[in-house]
Structures are given as structure tokens and as C-alpha cells.
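Lab notebook, design round three. We kept the backbone fixed and only want residue identities now. Task for the bench partner: fill in a sequence for the structure below.
Input C-alpha cells:
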């Protein structure tokens, strides 16, 4: 197979709402056990984290996967808070650097755009600056939501959102205070072409710390192993509604969202709400977690019509008397499970 030579460094420019021109640079280097995307924005760690999230989510709709390189992205100007025109420029700089897409030879690339759903390959719009950049005849300008409504259009393909399956499941977050809530985890999958060596490398978990990223990847890889034919077929992005939390009781909700997204389980009429973990997802086992009384009370208080509640089998003897009947009166159902499967 012929190898494509990738440029060492690429640049894509954008225009900010205040009229400044910002440059996004992307440099490719061997992965060498480093993160697949690194973003550098001096004195703005939150912006760097957001840029990393954007790029990782936008990669979901790429058919081919290559984990051999790391892309380092940087901005030469700090945008004002809330100015998101740089997002499309970062996505395109990343793609050009890796040889996924290329503008015409010799063209300077300008792009303005943002999205609330990069994992769907969607480009929602752009914030108009006082004036668009002055271009040469050979330059390329892409405006999100106008010239470019989805990333598939870069290569003349259909909207990739049609091939993305996204499912959310909810889990109880309990801290003993007013912030107790049902929080969601969303799993989006996109079919891959070609063989995948390491399942965990195909799973992106932006916006959370390294420990949670590793735990999510291990849980999904293990649960897919239990499926028998679940490995090597998907590119995956995982998002959390509340990215700052402690514990691993979200894992049953995570695994079930993944199974639903891949068509491995029946979709409930309402939400799927779950609490549980496992030390052996590869065997399909569901283990118990702490906080039975508080979490089941929270679920009962917020359950609604059509919701399906999944709890560890070890909780069955601890449930309050009449708990299942109380949920049924709300139109919800509950099951205490030992294993994942067709539930």
C-alpha cells in the first residue's frame, strides 16, 4: 500500500469576531506512547482542553484510524471568551496535518466555524467578523454553516451524521447535597474500515482526566470482548454531562449506552438509568457499588414514564419494600442484573 507523505507542519487561519486573524498550527510527530492530540495555548489551559475535545470529537466520522502519530496544535492569538470561529480551523489543520484532507496545492486555508455536535461531523455556523480576510485567487475560505455544513462535504461525501449512532444513559451522582442528580453519559459510534490492532485506541473520551479516560476505554473494550464480535468495528467518542465526578458507578450506564448505540440491546421507551461497575466486563459481569439507599431514592425521585432502571443484583435484597411497585406507578421498570446481555 502506497504511503502518503504528510507535511510536518500545517496552518489554517481564521478571523475572530473582533477582526483579528488567528492562526492554528498543527505539527505531526511519532506517537511514542503519548496522547494522540496535544493542544498548547499559553496561559489558557481551559481553551487548550476545549480544542483537544473539539479535535477528538471531529475525528469520530473518519473512516480510517491510525494511532501511530501525535498531532500538536497551537494558536498564535488567544481568542476572547465565547469566540469559537477557531474550532473549524483546528479541525481542518488536524486533518491536513495527518493527510486526511488537503486544500488545493499552494492555497492558503482560511476557515471560520463552530459546532455543538462535532461528533456528528456537523458544522453549525460561524460568527461574522467585521470583515472577512483578504484573499488571493488561490486561497480557500470555508464558512461553517454556509460553504460547509458537514465535514463529509470536504471530500464530496454524504452527511456523516447518518452513520453515527449516539445514545445516552443516565446514572445517579450522589454527594449527599443539593447537587445530587441523574447525570448522563453519551456514547457515539461510527463504523471503521480496516483492521484495528488496539480497541482502546479507537475510543476518545475528551473533557475528563486521564484516569477516567483509561477506565472508560478499559470498560468498553472489555464489554465488547464479551459480545464476541464487538471488537475492531467502531470508532467511538464518549461524553459526560458532568465531567467532574468520583467513583466508577457510571460504568454500567456507559456499557449499556454503548450496547444500545451498537444495536446490541433493546431501546427503552424512556431513559436507561443504571448504577453499577465491574472488575470483569470481559465476562459480562456486573458488580455492586456503594450508596444503594441514596442512589435508589434519587432514581425514584427523578424516574419517569418509560424509564428502564438497571441495578446490581447485590442490591436486590437491599431495596426498600415496594420499590419496584413505586417505579411501576411512575411508568418505569427496574431489574437487578448479574450480567450484561439482552436486558
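Proposed sequence:
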Amino acid at each position: 500500500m502506497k504511503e502518503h507523505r504528510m507535511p510536518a507542519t500545517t496552518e489554517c487561519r481564521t478571523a475572530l469576531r473582533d477582526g483579528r486573524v488567528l492562526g492554528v498550527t498543527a505539527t505531526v510527530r511519532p506517537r511514542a506512547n503519548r496522547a494522540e492530540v496535544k493542544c498548547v495555548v499559553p496561559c489558557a489551559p481551559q481553551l487548550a482542553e476545549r480544542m483537544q475535545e473539539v479535535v477528538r470529537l471531529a475525528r469520530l466520522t473518519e473512516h480510517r484510524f491510525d494511532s501511530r502519530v501525535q498531532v500538536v496544535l497551537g494558536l498564535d492569538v488567544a481568542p476572547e471568551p465565547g469566540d469559537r470561529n477557531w474550532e473549524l480551523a483546528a479541525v481542518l489543520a488536524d486533518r491536513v496535518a495527518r493527510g486526511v484532507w488537503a486544500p488545493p496545492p499552494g492555497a492558503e486555508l482560511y476557515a471560520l466555524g463552530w459546532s455543538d455536535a462535532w461528533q456528528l461531523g456537523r458544522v453549525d455556523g460561524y460568527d461574522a467578523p467585521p470583515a472577512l480576510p483578504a484573499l488571493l485567487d488561490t486561497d480557500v475560505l470555508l464558512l461553517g454553516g454556509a460553504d460547509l455544513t458537514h465535514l463529509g462535504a470536504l471530500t464530496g461525501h454524504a452527511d456523516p451524521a447518518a452513520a453515527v449512532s449516539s445514545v445516552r444513559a443516565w446514572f445517579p451522582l450522589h454527594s449527599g447535597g443539593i447537587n445530587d442528580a441523574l447525570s448522563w453519559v453519551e456514547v457515539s459510534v461510527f463504523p471503521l474500515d480496516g483492521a484495528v490492532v488496539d480497541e482502546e485506541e479507537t475510543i476518545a473520551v475528551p473533557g475528563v482526566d486521564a484516569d477516567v479516560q483509561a477506565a472508560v476505554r478499559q470498560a468498553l473494550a472489555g464489554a465488547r470482548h464479551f459480545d464476541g464480535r464487538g471488537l475492531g468495528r467502531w470508532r467511538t467518542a464518549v461524553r459526560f454531562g458532568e465531567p467532574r465526578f468520583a467513583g466508577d458507578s457510571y460504568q454500567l450506564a456507559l456499557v449499556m449506552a454503548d450496547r444500545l448505540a451498537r444495536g446490541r440491546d433493546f431501546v427503552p421507551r424512556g431513559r436507561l438509568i443504571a448504577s453499577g461497575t465491574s472488575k470483569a466486563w470481559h465476562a459480562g459481569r456486573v458488580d455492586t457499588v456503594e450508596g444503594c439507599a441514596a442512589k435508589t431514592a434519587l432514581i425514584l425521585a427523578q424516574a419517569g414514564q418509560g424509564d428502564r432502571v438497571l441495578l446490581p443484583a447485590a442490591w436486590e435484597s437491599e431495596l426498600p419494600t415496594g420499590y419496584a411497585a413505586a417505579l411501576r406507578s411512575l411508568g418505569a421498570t427496574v431489574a437487578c442484573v448479574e450480567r450484561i446481555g439482552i436486558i
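Keep this in mind before ordering anything: The CA atoms of residues 164 and 280 lie 28 Å apart.
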